[in-house]
Every structure is written in structure tokens, then in C-alpha cells.
Specification:
The protein is mainly β. The chain has a single domain, classed as L,D-transpeptidase catalytic domain-like (Beta Barrel), CATH 2.40.440. Helix content is 6%, strand content 33%. It contains 1 helix and 15 strands, in the order ββββββββββββββαβ. The strands form 4 sheets. The chain has a 5-stranded mixed β-sheet with strand order 3-2-1-15-6, with no helix packed on it. The two termini are 25 Å apart.
Length: 180
């Protein structure tokens, strides 16, 4: 069976001088290319918690979540489960559940998976810093929807809703996202 390869490449074409362009990128599937957003600090090889960068390397979507109260489950080859009201994602280095799904309330700082905006209506977890899990090397590196206002992510890869169904339908556990 053949592996589908998705390439994430920073696209600075048409941007001048400002750091603003660091978060503009392209998601490429063979000949198909769609705009995406990455971390506000661009792509980095030495990822650290809170640096606002998307980690360079090869990422694989291993599981995901969707908002059952907002839509039906999307068609994808990645295993999904509904986001539940108590779901959070621990982002505190040193915590025993760092970079893992947790149940709220949770004492350490965590990302709320059931966000009020639509960014996590569908969210995929990448295998970044999962096994082995290294404290401080970055948590909650996801594939999700862009904010309505656009703008950067905190280190994730995000696409506009109009491209989401197309992309999800192409994904399988063998898909690799090459971030460079």
C-alpha cells in the first residue's frame, strides 16, 4: 500500500519584510495545494513549549476529535472520537500528564478541547512528542481549523473549513506531514 505524503512548506512569496509572513504556509498533496496557517514563529527545528513555532520534521495524525454537537463525524481514515465536555489537554512541562488528554477540572494548565470558537470542531492529534514524551518539547501540536480572522496558530497546522473535508478524506494512518 502506498503512503500519501502531505508536505507543509512555508510560503513567503508575495510577503515583504514583516514577521507576519512566518505563519503563512501551503499544504500540498501531490499537485493540490491549499493555504494553511502554522505557528506565529514559523517552523523551528528545536521546538520548545510556548515558543509559538511549528516543529520541523515528519508528523503523523494518530487520532482525532470532533464536536458532535456541531456536526456529524467527518469522513477520514484517522480514528476519531467525539469531544466531551470535560476534555482538556495538559500543557505544563513536569506534569505527569504533559501532552496528554486530561479530564477537567484539572489542576495544571490545560487547553480546553471544547472551545467556544469553531477552531476545534475537528482536531487531529499529531504524534509530535508523544512517544517518547520529552518534557518541554511542545504539547498539543494539532491539525485544526483556522480562526475566522485568520492569523497564526500557537504551533499547530490549521486550514480553512472549505478545505477540511477534502483533506480529511485523503488522510490515513500512513499519511505523513513533512514540515519544513
Amino acid at each position: 500500500m502506498h503512503t500519501r505524503l502531505a508536505k507543509i512548506m512555508v510560503d513567503r512569496t508575495g510577503f515583504t519584510g514583516s514577521g507576519r509572513s512566518l505563519h503563512h504556509a501551503r499544504l500540498r498533496f501531490g499537485m493540490v495545494s491549499v493555504p494553511c496557517r502554522i505557528g506565529r514563529s514559523g517552523v523551528i527545528h528545536d521546538k520548545r513549549e510556548g515558543d509559538g513555532a511549528t516543529p520541523a520534521g515528519i508528523l503523523r495524525a494518530v487520532s482525532g476529535f470532533w464536536r458532535r454537537d456541531r456536526q456529524l463525524p467527518p469522513a477520514t481514515g484517522i480514528p476519531l472520537r467525539p469531544i466531551r465536555p470535560g476534555d482538556g489537554w495538559c500543557e505544563v512541562p513536569g506534569d505527569r500528564n504533559y501532552n496528554r488528554l486530561v479530564k477537567k477540572p484539572y489542576a495544571a494548565s490545560h487547553e480546553d478541547m471544547m472551545r467556544q470558537d469553531r477552531v476545534y470542531d475537528v482536531v487531529l492529534e499529531f504524534d509530535w512528542n508523544r512517544t517518547p514524551r520529552r518534557q518541554g518539547r511542545g504539547s498539543a501540536i494539532f491539525f485544526h481549523l483556522t480562526r475566522e480572522t485568520g492569523g497564526p496558530t500557537a504551533g499547530c497546522i490549521a486550514v480553512n473549513r472549505r478545505y477540511l473535508a477534502f483533506i480529511l478524506a485523503k488522510l490515513s494512518p500512513r499519511t505523513r506531514f513533512v514540515v519544513r
